[in-house]
Amino acid sequence: MPGDIIQLNVGGKRFATSKETLTWIQDSFFTSLLSGRISSLKDDNGAIFIDRDPALFTVILNYLRTKEVDLNNVDISSLKHEAEFYGIKPLVRRLCLCEELDAASCGDVLFHGYLGPPCPPVPDFMRSRSQSIISTDSHHAIRGATPQRHSSVDPRPGDSNQDDVHTHARQMSVDFSALMHHGSSIARTPSTHSMSRLSLSTDARSISRPVPYESLSTRLAHAQPMSGYITDPLKVTMLRGHHNWIAVAYPHFVCCFRMKDSTGWHLIWTSSYLDIPIERIAINAKVLSANQDNTNKMVAASSASLVRLWSISDGDGESREIGVFNLNVSVDSLFFIGSQLVALSKLGKVGVWHSMTHNWQIQDVVAITSYDKAGSFLLLGCENGSVYYIDMQKFPLRMKDNDLLVTELYRDPAGDKVTALSVYLTPKTSVSGNWIEIAYGTSSGTVRVIVQHPETVGHGPQLFQTFTVHRSPVTKVMLSEKHLVSVCSEYNHVRTWSVTRFRGMISTQPGSTPLASFKVISLEDYDPNQSYMAGNDFGPFGEQDDQQVFVQKVVPETDQLFIRLSSSGRRVCVIKSVDGTTISAFRVHECEGSSRMGSRPRRFLFTGHTNGGIQMWDLTTALDLMSPVEESKQVGPIKPSTTEQNLGGPTPKELVKLLDQCDICQSQNSTPCISPSPSIIGGSIQRPCLDLVHGISVPNIEHLEEQGAAGGIEKSQFGPGERYRHNRSNSYWV
């Protein structure tokens, strides 16, 4: 009967209500339960038992009674989940609307813009297939009586210069074909952004019609590729910026965007398809050539041991491939210093290309574990405990000697590996020139600061301070005008100090004062690709004379990033993708201000996504809007409190929500847990070897045993015949 009293036991709490109250919404959980369409359990008192949250059921039952919902102290997402379980559709619609009000597709005040995904270039193996179809159909058309209309693909701009590829005196440019499997090759034709507009189809008629990037990317993913092809062609893997240009790397091509004052960001150039997946990229938007103009930009991409370099016109985006250079070992870092392109390998190789002489030079050094650059200097931290430097301004003068001028600057007193390095050049004053201040971390967890006065260059730097607060290898260190920041491998544990300066120079009166201690937890994919860490480096980002930030990406598959001050760990803001897509790479870059009066440089966070899009976020505004718990007023160590912890990284509630879709695997490290993974121990460019165990990629056991404390892994953890937990898509290191 409609007036029957129904006794319920929800999660151990008893409820009594009428049948009419429970069943006025059709096709709900309760109509099915009370009609007998689904089975039910009863407790000892005869009440129907429902194994759900009683607190949330109270809100839902009140809604069924009054058609009103009280959202005070209730998590909307959890309530919506319960309402969906019970099939209360009117309540679900209301809660969905509440969530949509807080998640606008246009973003919040920090959202600055959106760049749509480019159309991926056509791979050579698919272009050859399409051209053969055209050729076959054209042959039939000539022989047939009825003429047929077919369109051919227009040649790319710059094809007339196809053979005009620069070679260099020290080492000739090489072709990818020598390193590809199955004898495949890559076209060496210069390309422009018009390359991305090439059509692709299965017959000659459809080739003449434009193909949307969604259709093309789908065909690329389902094509029969050659070895090394990645089936996610539009996933952003890396971003790099220089001045008002950004370079974006996808698995098999690179594109560039440029910002103009009045019209905003534009896609300028897209490379041709590259067979080998891209692992590193670099961009130089201020190249001084022999005639001292700045009309061309330089973009470089590396795959395995090969470095490909392009020159891009500033005006129309026309490009010319300068050459392909071989470092002979895997490229671990790629960047520009002035007009020179530098490629580093952890095995002890330095490759340099100069824009004026067009020479490619390779130099053997000690195994490299860290590096930094300051002005025209490249500093290398090495496995033998020494810090070396190369003055790039002297590079052209040394070419005839066939040798780079690599000079030992300092040797660690304990002989530990230099696993992190940071250089700070003090501003020149009327009293003295630039002081060279260097902070470095070691594999034993020690952080040291050394200083060299410009008047004592011949005597080498002097040891200034030593900190032994870390018990794990130091993976990052940053010395800035106001702070010293160090990060070790145990959960990315960060220690910070305030730096005292006198007339711009570091001072011991009163010396560096401990400021904060916090962790930037970042879980890694169980089997990340080579470019993952290059595209997801958490910082710190920012100029050394300005406030720096960490970008915390808690899990690889997420649409959220936590922006935190590097000096204190306090939260600046939380960035969430406006379209809900996964963030696959990110980079903080400061763009130049416009020529308008009062304009100033602005700091942006660029996020690349799995759908190929790029979203921009205004970090300058975020820092301006921070609640004034000012760093300038902080004179002593920051005392941790519950409130301040909530303003740092993810809260326990936020962390659990982020981990909902993750399968946390047992760490293979002796710390017992380590983050980042052994792939970047000893600096961002050090990666362990990989072996296949039962078809699963795991760190090479013998290599890790030799690595010792630097790798944080013991051989005893790998039992004979042991199988490792692995979930290819959702397994992460802790």
Question: How many strands?
Answer: 42
Total DSSP helices? 13
Percentage of helical residues? 10-25%
SS-derived structural category: alpha+beta
- Strand residue content: 25-35%
Mean pLDDT across every amino acid position: 74
As a whole number of angstroms, the C-alpha radius of gyration is 30 Å
Q: Tell me, what's the shape?
A: elongated
Largest sheet features: 4 strands, mixed
The first-to-last residue Cα distance is: 56 Å
Unreliable stretches, pLDDT < 50, 5 or more residues?
141-213, 224-228, 629-635, 640-646, 667-734
* Main sheet strand line-up: 2-1-4-3
SSE layout and pairing:
Blueprint: E1 5-10, E2 13-18, H1 19-23, H2 29-35, E3 41-42, E4 48-50, H3 54-66, H4 76-86, H5 89-102, E5 111-115, H6 124-143, H7 204-207, H8 213-222, E6 238-242, E7 245-249, E8 254-260, E9 264-270, E10 280-284, E11 296-303, E12 306-313, E13 319-326, E14 333-337, E15 340-345, E16 349-354, E17 360-364, E18 368-374, E19 377-382, E20 386-391, E21 406-411, E22 418-425, E23 436-442, E24 447-452, E25 462-467, E26 474-479, E27 483-488, E28 493-498, E29 501-502, E30 505-506, E31 513-519, E32 524-525, H9 532-535, E33 549-552, E34 560-565, E35 571-576, E36 583-591, E37 602-609, E38 614-618, H10 619-624, H11 642-646, H12 652-658, E39 663-664, E40 690-693, E41 696-699, H13 701-707, E42 731-733
Parallel strand pairs: 1-4, 39-42
Antiparallel strand pairs: 1-2, 3-4, 5-38, 6-7, 7-8, 8-9, 10-11, 11-12, 12-13, 14-15, 15-16, 16-17, 18-19, 19-20, 20-21, 22-23, 23-24, 24-25, 26-27, 27-28, 28-31, 29-30, 32-42, 33-34, 34-35, 36-37, 37-38, 40-41
